[in-house]
Specification:
This protein has 290 residues and is an alpha+beta fold. 67% of the residues lie in helices and 12% in strands. The mean pLDDT is 84.
């Protein structure tokens, strides 16, 4: 009998232990569920916060773009009206035509970089050797960039032989005036605006000399003329070139060359160590507004 009672007591203890274990397990599961719920809620809150921030950033970007677009519209209209008033003859007729493609080009390339159109001349007029007038969509005067917006159909697909020859004469005329032919296709302007903007920024930085005014002011008139002449040679600069350019003797020409070397605007060419027979223009010499 005692044995039976002990068995009953053991069974009771076992049942209690199982009950306790079950309760502990339930508590643990509830705790895990609670933690998972908290993690899920935190994750959802974080995602909602990120979505909200992205939405706010998008709205701010849209507002910024709209303001920039509005500012461009005002600047372009002001520029167009001012140049219409100053224009006469055929150029005035060109300015009164549909300039939507030129406007798009300026908005995509020039405006984001310069935030201004003050250096732009619309429908800039040039006269070719044969006396025919040609017009540049937009001339950037500081860097001498002849900006052209060209559609595929008009300038390639449906072009006649006569028109093709005229286009080549136009490019040569632009080059003869010392301007750089800088075309953008409308497909690029619409599909790859960032690439067009980067290309313009690179050219304006290289040829307009932005940020190089201090160095430019330190050059005397002889040094500027030598660098200007060296840019057009398209080969290494020689002492004889400097003498010819300045109309000076050997001593003065050598003095100018040494000064440009000291200012790191010229680099020694050839294999000489103490005496140099030719010189190369340094990268920063090309950036000066000469």
């Amino acid at each position: 009998m005692e044995r039976g009672m002990a068995l009953i007591r053991n069974m009771g203890h076992g049942a209690c232990e199982m009950k306790e274990m079950k309760e502990i397990k339930e508590i643990k599961e509830m705790k895990e569920m609670k933690e998972m719920k908290e993690v899920k809620e935190m994750k959802e809150m974080k995602e909602m916060k990120e979505i909200k921030e992205m939405k706010e950033m998008k709205e701010m970007k849209e507002i910024k773009l709209q303001r920039s677009s509005d500012a461009f519209e005002r600047e372009f209209n002001r520029l167009l009206e001012a140049q219409k008033q100053a224009a006469t003859g055929q150029r005035l007729e060109m300015l009164c035509r549909d300039l939507s493609s030129t406007k798009q080009m300026l908005q995509v390339t020039v405006w984001p970089v310069l935030k201004s159109l003050e250096s732009i001349i619309l429908e800039f007029e040039l006269v070719s050797r044969s006396g025919i007038k040609v017009y540049i969509d937009g001339l950037e005067t500081r860097a001498g960039l002849a900006l052209e917006s060209e559609g595929f159909a008009v300038h390639a697909q449906n072009i006649s032989r006569e028109r093709f020859a005229f286009e080549k004469r136009k490019v040569r005329t632009i080059a003869s005036y010392g301007y750089m032919y800088t075309p953008f296709s409308r497909d690029e302007l619409e599909g790859k605006p960032d690439e067009c903007q980067s290309s313009f920024a690179e050219l304006i930085g290289r040829y307009a000399g932005y940020g190089w005014n201090q160095l430019y002011s330190e050059l005397n008139v002889y040094e500027r003329e030598v660098l200007r002449y060296g840019k057009r040679l398209l080969r290494p600069l020689k002492p004889a070139d400097v003498q010819f350019c300045l109309g000076c003797g050997r001593t003065f020409g050598t003095k100018v060359l040494r000064s440009l070397l000291d200012k790191e605007l010229l680099l020694p060419g050839g294999e000489g160590v103490h005496r140099f027979r030719q010189y190369l223009l340094a990268e920063k010499a090309f950036r000066l507004p000469l």
